[in-house]
Write a structure and sequence with these properties.
Shape: globular
Helix content: 40-55%
Radius of gyration: 15 Å
Pfam family, one: DUF3140
Organism: Micromonospora echinofusca
Order of helices and strands: HHHHH
Structural class: mainly alpha
Number of strands: 0
Protein name: DUF3140 domain-containing protein
Strand content: under 5%
Largest sheet: none
């Protein structure tokens, strides 16, 4: 069920924070998730079903307008923001390439190599 988010300042703040934290496009995130989700198994008839979570949920939110958000979408945005913040706080020392850390951020739609 969609809610009227045009008058909800909390949703406006979460929407803005989410889009600041998720710094890759929906196309980039989908491509990344398809790569991550492919593994050794073949795709199902609907490749989107094989996308790993929570990336699939984040991708779904990226495809929505603010006025179409549900409570579940708002929870996804909060979780993504918190997850990205937690991972950024664990940044490896400069010069140490940590692919696992970067991949965990990419799973949430954040590329630490992208500067804004």
């Amino acid at each position: 069920m969609a809610r009227d988010t045009r008058t909800d300042p909390e949703v406006e703040t979460i929407w803005q924070d989410f889009h600041e934290h998720v710094n890759v496009t929906s196309e980039q995130l989908r491509s990344w998730l398809l790569t991550r989700g492919s593994g050794e198994e073949t795709f199902t008839a609907d490749p989107d079903l094989a996308l790993p979570e929570p990336g699939r949920q984040i991708l779904a939110v990226l495809g929505k307008r603010k006025v179409d958000l549900t409570r579940a979408d708002i929870d996804v945005m909060r979780t993504a923001i918190a997850g990205i913040d937690a991972l950024l706080a664990e940044r490896p020392p400069r010069g140490n390439a940590d692919d696992q850390w970067r991949h965990a951020l990419l799973d949430l739609g954040h590329d630490p190599l992208v500067e804004r």
